[in-house]
Design a protein that fits this description.
- The structure holds 2 protein chains of 2 kinds.
- Chain A is of the alpha+beta class.
- Chain A has a single domain, classed as Alpha-Beta Plaits, CATH 3.30.70.20.
- Chain A is about 10% helix and about 20% strand.
- By secondary structure, chain B is an alpha/beta fold.
- Chain B contains 14 helices and 15 strands.
- In chain B, helix 1 packs across helix 2.
- The longest helix of chain B is centred in the middle third of the chain and has 16 residues.
- Classes of the chains: A alpha+beta, B alpha/beta.
Chain lengths: ~100, ~400
């Protein structure tokens, strides 16, 4: 499985910067967009067994593997809680946002 | 010794497709295309062609399947006609926008209503702005050969644009001719296996396909597609030259002139009527009249520059349309008039409309058109031929 973090939108300054057809690597079309979150997922890396389940179910593509550890991209996580619900070893808990 | 057979246009197309070894054929039968997809199905059934033949439930599904299979890098063919083309029309810009090298045969047929299964070229005109390369063929041999050439053109990594080959319904699709069937090994040399283009679906390089692009970027995507389509002219010629070297037959570039060099007037034709018109040109040339013909082989992208090279600036030009854009004129005429204007052409232009719904265009009709172009007969800017009643 390829580990990738969803990127920011590429800079498109010339026609040649535009992708061929309408295929390109996925990227976030929004700027940082985390304002809707009420609860945020917090990952306990000691409990995590690197099963990729959260990576696959995250509808925002906000979870990725960095070196050997999984990370949640708080800039783009909407706080839906799917990852916490789906985690079989309960390594993710939903914590109320304080800000 | 080359192998000859007595084939109709549909069968010639089926042989062309078989020799091109597609991975997937998805099609729904419709008159006058049926025999082509039936024959391909037979090839698959008999084990003569190893491919996934998908008999889908509609033309919309045929195009959708073609888009799916082409997007994973499979060589893909489909065929349709008339109402079927109109039904799959939604998928056409999807295929071209996603730069999927699908090849389609369209057996040109009338559009309802009144319902009619016979040939004219109304259907193809609906697809002009869809971003597909559009080619017209004159006979069954050209239809077979253009199948092979079209895969090479569509799949070229500089082109990556779907190709629609138009073949006149009945006049070509159901008429038998002597056709040479190339050797498989020669076709394999000419058209090697498809190489998956980098923008297509691949495990090693995951990508989003058919993305959204809002008002900030959408226009640039469209302009890029439009600009890149122009590359097809050069590649089209190059492929034909290579084909000629390999198989001993060539068809030339996007427009081909016939007796055009010293012609005072030229008739522009597309498709099978070109053959009839050439005979008329020969007859009139024998009588000392300086007439010529331009065979339009490719209407998208439109060969503006080539048109300039082929006709002298003050020649009178007639355009024979087998379609009507209701409330205006024939669509080929619109296209050619615009191109002539861009080329600063000063000669008169006339639109001759005929052959609608399977009506014959006779040599006498074409002689009459040349009479107009030579100034021997008066005609309206747009006139209709072989009508069975008064206007």
């Amino acid at each position: 499985m390829k580990d990738f973090k969803v990127k920011k939108a590429p800079k498109l300054e010339k026609l040649s910067d535009f992708p061929m057809g309408s295929s390109c690597e996925s990227f976030n079309i929004t700027e940082i967009n985390a304002g809707w979150r009420v609860f945020k997922p917090v990952l306990d890396v000691d409990k995590c067994v690197n099963c990729y389940r959260c990576y696959l179910v995250c509808p925002e593509g906000a979870i990725h593997k960095n070196n050997d550890k999984f990370e949640i991209d708080e800039d783009f996580c909407k706080g839906c809680g799917l990852c916490a619900h789906e985690c079989k070893v309960n390594a993710i808990s939903m914590i109320k946002e304080t800000k | 010794m080359p192998k000859y057979d007595f084939l109709n246009g549909n069968e010639a197309v089926a042989y062309g497709v078989k020799l091109s070894r597609p991975h997937v054929v998805s099609a729904y039968p419709i008159t006058p295309q049926t025999k082509a997809v039936e024959k391909i199905a037979q090839f698959v059934q008999d084990g003569d062609l190893e491919c996934e033949y998908m008999h889908v439930e509609s033309e919309h599904s045929a195009m959708s399947c073609a888009i799916g299979s082409s997007s994973v890098g499979a060589r893909t063919f489909t065929a349709t006609s008339s109402q079927g083309l109109l039904y799959m029309l939604e998928g056409l810009p999807y295929a071209s926008g996603a730069r999927l090298p699908i090849v389609m045969m369209n057996a040109n047929r009338s559009i309802a209503t009144p319902w009619n299964i016979y040939g004219d070229q109304m259907d193809a005109m609906f697809a002009l702005p869809t971003g597909w390369i559009q080619i017209f063929v004159e006979d069954a041999q050209e239809a077979l050969d253009m199948m092979i050439q079209s895969f090479k053109l569509a799949e070229d990594h500089e082109i990556l644009t779907p190709v629609m080959v138009n073949m006149d319904g009945f006049v070509l699709s159901h008429t038998y001719e002597k056709v040479q069937i190339p050797e498989q090994k020669d076709v394999d040399d000419f058209l090697p296996e498809i190489v998956t283009a980098p923008h297509l679906m691949q495990d090693e390089n995951p990508m989003s396909m058919c993305i959204s692009a809002g008002n900030k970027h959408n226009m640039e995507f469209k302009i890029k597609q439009h600009k890149e389509m122009e590359k097809a002219f050069e590649k089209f010629e190059e492929i034909d030259l290579e084909f000629e070297k390999k198989f001993g037959r060539g068809y030339g570039s996007a427009i081909v002139g016939y007796c055009h060099e010293d012609a005072e007037c030229l008739l522009v034709t597309a498709g099978s009527v070109t053959g009839t018109a050439k005979n008329v040109v020969d007859k009139l040339r024998k009588a000392g009249k300086k007439v010529g013909l331009l065979k339009l082989r490719m209407i998208r992208p439109f060969p503006i520059k080539l048109l300039k090279e082929l006709c002298s600036n003050n020649s009178t030009i007639g355009v024979l349309d087998k379609n009507i854009s209701f409330g205006y004129e024939g669509s080929l005429f619109t296209n050619i008039n615009s191109a002539l204007k861009q080329n600063n052409h000063i000669g008169e232009t006339y639109n001759f409309i005929g052959g609608i719904g399977g009506r014959d265009i006779t040599p006498e009709n074409i002689e009459e058109m040349f009479d107009v172009l030579l100034g021997n007969k008066k005609a309206e800017k747009i006139s209709f031929y072989n009508m069975r009643c008064e206007l």
